[in-house]
Amino acid sequence: MMIIEGAKHMLPIERQNRIRQLVQEKHSIKIVDLSKDIGVSEMTIHRDLKPLIEEGSVIKTFGGVTLAHDHSDKQGTLDECVFCSRAIHERLAYRLILPNNKIEIACCSHCGLLRHRQLGDKVMQAITYDFFRQTTLSAPLAWYVMDTSIQVGCCQPQVLTFESKDHADKFVKGFGGNVYSFKEAMDNLFRKMNGHEEHSCNH
Ligand SMILES: [Zn+2]
Ligand SMILES: [Zn+2]
Based on the number of CB atoms within 10 Å of its own CB, is 57 exposed (0-12), middle (13-18) or buried (19 or more)? Predict the structure, then answer.
């Protein structure tokens, strides 16, 4: 057991090291638990986390953080899409957070949504990136653009992800396509996939 004396007087850098250590140990942890462990406010934890998120050692999830590049997954390499085995390009990746700190990564929202649909309620959280700003966002809250003229070179039919509906609408205005909510995008993609067999994702 670890006793932290005078945690309130830890320097930011010490708190960050402690956070790093806790995330390494637990793989994912809630802000409220970090706040309790370290003995500072949640606001301070948020401030401490900022550089860790920016350097990419942890990933922000809803109400907490999770370890980036979690190699605890015994099912295989995390450098490959869990759905189609393509190489992962971080800026398009779609992460599925499952029970027992298991994380699956899909190459893009196309594979992410299809895998998410397969796993259903087992998915505790899904994280993807905003196409414009490259900030992480919760997949169920995202807006999805399909059938647009811009091609990013991952799986077809292509699915792009936006945090703001306004950005998605403007994107579609400029480059064509349709905007869908999470549920609509998932259903629409599944329908398309079953409509025609052609799927560039399958090797
Ligand atoms: Zn894939
Ligand atoms: Zn893909």
Answer: middle
Binning pLDDT at 50, 70 and 90, where does residue 26 land?
Answer: confident
Predicted local distance difference test score (pLDDT) of residue 78: 65
- 77 lies in some domain: no
Terminal Cα-to-Cα distance of the chain (whole angstroms): 49
| Domain span at 20 | 9-67
Give me the sheet containing 102-106, strands edge to edge. 102-106, 94-98, 125-129, 136-138
How many angstroms separate the alpha carbon of residue 28 from the centre of ligand 1? 24
C-alpha 109 – ligand 2 centre gap (Å): 7
- Give the ligand at the shortest distance from the Cα of 85: 1
The answer to whether the predicted template modeling score (pTM) of the entire model surpasses 0.70 is no
